[in-house]
Amino acid sequence: MNHSSGNDADRSTDPVVSVLLDPDWASGSLVDDVRRGLGSRPLRLPPKWLYDDEGSRLFDRITKLPEYYPFTAEHAILDRHAADIAAACDATTLVELGSGTSEKTRLLLEALHGTGRLRRFVPVDVSEGILRESASLIGEHWPDVTVEAVVGDFTLHLGHLPRGDTRMVAFLGGTIGNLYVEERAAFLGALADSLDPGEWLLLGTDLVKSIDRLVPAYFDAEGVTDRFVRNGLHVLNRELGADFDPGAFGYVAFWDPHMERMDLRLRAEEPQQVTIPGADLVVDIAAGEELQVEISTKFRLEGIRGELAAAGFEVAETFTDPDEDFALTLARRV
């Protein structure tokens, strides 16, 4: 993947889009995940399969719910501290993992651009359509910044990120909290391996807080999160010909105090046998048995420092919102 260099006049507003995902990636990856997650106990469905078009629409609604604080809190940090983040690092390339529409990232782009150092933006996402649209808008807004979009899965393609210049990888939204402990360690280690010493990571994490705030954020009064999680069953029915009855499950969201995470599940309200032809799988589910769909780990600042240090990062600065609900941690690869 080559990128434009030289004078601003040489740069094009047309983004370069590199597609690293095989056209059959989604179907093959879904089959693998379903066989692994529903072919053994406990039953588990990776949360990435919640985000089809309908799931993405529902999640966008979730971020606007009064109970759901993470989006607002992280936006407040960027609104207040993007210039401080830009000043604290020497990055000339911004890489965003799981970029989506890059809505919050524009605050960071504006601040980095204001330093006069920003040369390149590399948004990474599995959704090619959203990525192309977002990359074009950013290219139009900052015509002197080269946009190199990557259609890829950040758990698979970290080693393929464009190199050159000094990169800062932004992993926002608290998404790292969706990974289990061992997955987080593996991801942070792989990310460190993909960066050169002196390059940067900006990590968004939701912080531990009162259960009275946490549970309503994931069990909202409108039932939007319920529909979002239940949508995963509709995805399996549509993509793999499964015969799940989404109405035969209840939505469960609870705080796990030992692991300090929210745990989102679907609980079978009656015994059922589900056939999943596309994965060549038949699953017998007992009444009361739960399907684990998503976790959302909450962090403490000292824990974040420890996990980053174990992976090869040194924390430079930490920024929180006024209520200390959320943190952005700027760390350097050592």
Structure explained in plain terms:
- The protein has 334 residues and is of the alpha/beta class.
- It folds into 2 domains: 193 residues, Vaccinia Virus protein VP39 (Rossmann fold), CATH 3.40.50; 128 residues.
- It has 9 helices and 14 strands.
- It has an 8-stranded mixed β-sheet with strand order 1-5-4-3-6-7-14-13, sandwiched between helices.
- The chain is globular and about 60 Å long.
- The N terminus is likely disordered.
Task: Pick out its properties.
alpha/beta, eight-stranded mixed sheet, four-stranded mixed sheet, 14 strands, globular, disordered N terminus
Q: Calculate the terminal CA-CA distance, rounded to whole Å.
A: 26 Å
Please report which band the strand proportion falls in: under 5%, 5-15%, 15-25%, 25-35%, 35-45% or over 45%.
25-35%
Structural class: alpha/beta
Largest sheet: 8 strands, mixed
Number of extended strands: 14
Q: And the CATH topology of the largest domain?
A: Rossmann fold
Strand arrangement, major sheet: 1-5-4-3-6-7-14-13
Nearest-integer average pLDDT: 92
Order of SSEs, N→C?
A: EHEHHEHEHEEHEHHEEEEEHEE
From the coordinates shown, what is the CATH architecture of the largest domain?
3-Layer(aba) Sandwich
Query: Helical amount among residues, as a percent range?
Result: 25-40%
- Would you identify the regions where 5 or more consecutive residues have pLDDT less than 50? 1-12
Q: From the alpha-carbon coordinates, what is the Rg to the nearest angstrom?
A: 20 Å
CATH homology superfamily name of the largest domain:
Vaccinia Virus protein VP39
**CATH class value of the largest domain:** Alpha Beta
Can you count the helices? 9
Looking at the structure, what is the overall shape? globular
> What is the domain tally?
2
